[in-house]
What does this fold into?
Amino acid sequence: MSEINGNDQVDMPVPQETKSALQSTVDADAEVERQMRQLSRRSFLWSAVAIGAGYGGVRWLNSRRAEDGIPWPLRRALQTNEALARDLFDRSRLAPTFAATRIDPLRANGDIGLDADFDASQWQLNIEGASGETQSVTLAQIKALPQAEMITELKCIEGWAAVVRWTGARLSDFIAKYPPPTNSGKAFDAQNLADLPGYVGLATPDGAYYVGLEMEASLHPQTLLCYAMNGQALRPEHGAPLRLAIPVKYGIKSIKRIGTLTYTNMRPADYWAERGYDYHAGH
Ligand SMILES: Nc1nc2c(c(=O)[nH]1)N[C@H]1C(S)=C(S)[C@@H](COP(=O)(O)O)O[C@H]1N2
Ligand SMILES: [Mo]
It folds into this structure.
């Protein structure tokens, strides 16, 4: 874990504590750093929280020097995840799939951007930054793409998970049909990532919820634009008429009720990243 170094000890402000209390704080910090170094990559984020909790929990964590307003053990984990994100989300790494007997009852969570007076009959998916003429796509056009189905786990960052059967179109098929411009000006080629915009941004029709995905993650075979869940048409609380399912990432990225899809080279705004969560949100 070369991303972690000891530099943060150098400018640590001296807390208003007695000498011995200060010494034990420094010892605890050193021990946390040592344990964090030993963690496997994928368990890093949550283990950092757990180790911090082991030394007195949230109070301990909140007393650490804040970097970007986030206590450093968490910040360090977030930066490390960021640095590792590209190899974690390559297209060959598949999220586990499950037997149909493992499907859980639906559970709705999060209603940002799902206002009640939405008129689904008027819905179209707006595309921004595409190379062709197409600027909006109907649900019928999305259903005309090859249908994909998968049974995967929706993992919420709050600590619960549900196995869901997802039905929809691969985002990669959508991108191939309504492609972004390439840097070289040549035809779209999903294999030539360096020639494509770096990101896809997705937002609800009202713009209240929004996520950003790296192009690699968008082209992942398990990233689906879904119109059905557990064999039934998507319900409003689950994001009708169209939502994302991206099981290589936490549920925060599975945006419900997509209104706009944007191809861009600038990292798109992301609702939960703006609130301190890891931008890539892999697990
Ligand atoms: N538009 C929108 N999409 C969203 C959210 C939200 O608040 N608004 N919450 C996210 C979170 S945190 C999770 S865990 C999943 C939950 O999906 P579900 O309600 O279908 O179980 O939706 C994600 N997509
Ligand atoms: Mo979530």
Notes: Residues 1-19 have pLDDT under 50 and may be disordered. The pocket of molybdenum atom (ligand 2) is lined by residues 109-110, 156-158, 251-252 (CB under 6 Å).
